[in-house]
Amino acid sequence: MEAKIGLLMDVPDGKLVDFYTQIEKALAGKANVFDQDNEMIIVSSEAEKFTVIEVMAGLNVNTDQMKLLLLPSDAELMDLFSDYGFTSEGENNYLYEKLVVSFRFTEDSKQADVDQASLQIEEHLLALYKDHGRDIYVVDRQLEELMQGIAKAYRCRIEVLA
Prior knowledge:
Elements: E1 2-10, H1 16-27, E2 35-37, E3 40-43, H2 46-58, E4 62-70, E5 76-77, E6 85-87, E7 93-96, E8 100-105, H3 111-121, E9 127-131, E10 134-140, H4 144-153, E11 158-161
Antiparallel strand pairs: 1-3, 1-4, 2-3, 4-7, 5-9, 6-7, 8-10, 8-11, 9-10
């Protein structure tokens, strides 16, 4: 997953189209907007974040920032995904970083044990994707200890990813 920064604009009701046109003009050539979703502008770096905030302040638009995680385009989204993230106008899938944790099984875990543990973990999954041929599991951050326990019960171990 790739870290992104979401800037949620506090736009008066019914003014989004007008404001967004102004914002696009004001941001042109100043910041690279990676994506957007309704009242959120998504950028890739701290520098771009500060540029957007500065432009917004000049337009008297308050912003709240949040850390997002961009899922790979081939990630499998589970039923609970929409409680922890969203799909943008650009068709990208994001998770709210503060709500989720991702992990994989350690390489020394036996595949048969991993398969059994995966079945148990499946009901808690938000998303699943591959990174360098290895499955990466994403669950609610509060379930990290439970995931450790499930892995241990099936004689395997997980490593939490940063």
